Hints:
Blueprint: H1 20-33, H2 39-53, E1 58-64, E2 70-77, E3 90-91, H3 98-101, E4 108-110, H4 127-131, E5 136-144, E6 147-156, H5 164-250, H6 255-279, H7 282-287, H8 289-301, E7 309-314, H9 325-346, E8 350-357, E9 361-368, H10 383-393, E10 397-404, E11 407-416, E12 436-437
Parallel strand pairs: 7-8
Antiparallel strand pairs: 1-2, 1-6, 2-3, 4-5, 5-6, 7-12, 8-9, 9-11, 10-11
Amino acid sequence: xxxxxxxxxxxxxxxxxxxxxxxxRLLVIARxxxxxxxxxxxxxATAAExxxxxxxDHIDVAVLLHDRRKxxxxxxxxxxxxxxxxxxxxxxxxxxxxxxxxxEVAHLLTPDALCDARFHFPGALDEPIFSAGxxxxxxxxxxxxxxxxxxxxxSRHDPGCYTFADVETAQHCADFIAxxxxxxxxxxxxxxxxxxxxxxxxxxxxxRVGASRLTEGMERERRRIAMDLHDQTLADLAxxxxxxxxxxxxxxxxxxxxxxxxxxxxNCLAELRRIVDDMRPGVLxxxxxxxxxxxxxxxxxxxxxxxxAVRIDDTSAGAADRLSQEMRTALYRIVQEAIxxxxxHAQPDRIEVRMEASDxxxxxxxxxxxxxxxxxxxxxxxxxxHMHTRAALIGARLRIGRASRRGGTRVMVEVAWLPAAMAxxxxxxxxxxxxxxx
Length: 438
């Protein structure tokens, strides 16, 4: 074994006299570190040089993050699931080397970690020790500004490979690389925090602007409904009142007059029902998202000329109806606007709605074979802007683009969920409706 020894194998510690070969190797490590700005790449660059001092099959650093409650891991040699901790840090309490990270012991040295109880406890992230066969292990602390900031962990597949002298050499390496690696990690953490803060500010501004536009749109819609009631329904009711008054003055009513009066009242009811349905989708509350979309789809194309074929294909097993009322309503409004845009502007022969669910998300797609929508600006005002705002307010992802190479438009809205939040059991999915003209 190519190991630099200090002359003391009974007790670990920092040697008083560092050998020239160790100094030379540390200078090589310093050159290997130079120029790296990624902590993982910087550590991997030193792994081979440390291997000249302490042969290993696997080497990693476990680094405490700023709150010390979580730790990340960067490794070289055989790759294990510990690498995932670089992107997804986990609690320090789960680390197999937590006793060194906490400063409870000066180091860990074991001839066989597979059967060393110090590495294994309930919840420990010890699976790589078994899967990678990391038997001989050295764990030494890494310090910066006098505090433990992580550990240097060196392993071999064969048992009984390391001694206290190797612990001393490992500690020299850890002391040498710790400030540089820790500074890179702190810089990376600061960069991530800055990006997260910037994204949060941008998201908040997007929601603020979107909510403002949505409020303006709702106010315009309120005025439109008021005009509809005034110009259509109230006018119809006023006409009915005049007819009733005329009949009252005559003292008698013919069958034709009563029939005309009945038609006027039926028309008023139909118009009021249309306005109420637009304001509050009752089918959505009573029968669910799928039926509400189908009802609106059929109603939207009922007077189209030439006729438009429709199809709704639901493979989500009713999963949408386990979402909150607010999310279902927002999804319905987005789909409603997509259908309206297709009918009014796309001149399609066919409109299809597809609903599908996975264990991660629910996706609703509205596709048509019309003339297309061109380039869509998510910042635009009007219906498309409202769709983006509604999607942002519920954390959904909205994409608008071409339906196929031949053209058309596809609107896709996807909302993520946690499987644990889906309390209600799934119901059987409805079969796909056949395409037909309405």
